[in-house]
Amino acid sequence: MRKDMRTVVHPPKLSDQVYGLLKEDLVGDVFSPGQRLVEVDLAKRYGVSRTPVREAMARLSREGLLESHERGYLCPLDTQRDIVDRLEARRLIDTQIARRAAHLAKPEDVVQLQACFDDEKKAHEQDDITAFVEAHQALQKLLRITSRNALMAQCAAMVNDSFQLVRNQIHENKANREKTLECDGKLLDAIRASDQALAVDIMNTFIDSLHDYFGVEKPS
């Protein structure tokens, strides 16, 4: 075989493209909680047949972003139990992401995290909710990368996506944005100082505040 031969890169499958578009719409508040999603309507929206829509919806259901229903799929309506379960998962995973980031962050990682935090702070000062959420998400993604554990990062991303459905609603409130900004700033300082214990404490305190926001009991 010739050494200069190259493998053809196939374009993304149609169902993968629909998956990406539908996921963006779900986390972007295009659909309302409890709303039934109809295959034919989504096929028209994305300009495709029903088959890739069906495949994308099944995939999103497995990830917890859609709820299977006898007549198709619904945008999930979170129960108190759902919220408690997600917060418990976040506490288990996000604290370890923070700890590993504080332990393993390189100087260039800190520079990138600081840039995301600066964008987040600027968006808050300008009262730009969309930009704030985007900057916060970018910072969260960098934290997962900095943890240098691909499987843990994948789990964290899945839990994070499940919370994205209510994140815009949470951050419409200026006080909530300030709490998020405060947490991210303190966490960045802990990472810069390589203080693993402090990073874990900061995440635990923030998740406690989410329990208060949702009005659900904290773990004993």
From TrEMBL:
Which Pfam families does the UniProt entry name for this protein? FCD, GntR
Question: Which positions fall inside the HTH gntR-type domain?
Answer: 12-78
SMART domains cross-referenced by the UniProt entry: FCD, HTH_GNTR
* Signal peptide interval: none
Q: Which UniProt keywords apply?
A: DNA-binding, Transcription, Transcription regulation
Looking at the keywords, is Transferase present?
no
Alphabetized GO MF terms: DNA binding; DNA-binding transcription factor activity
Q: What is this protein called?
A: Transcriptional regulator, GntR family
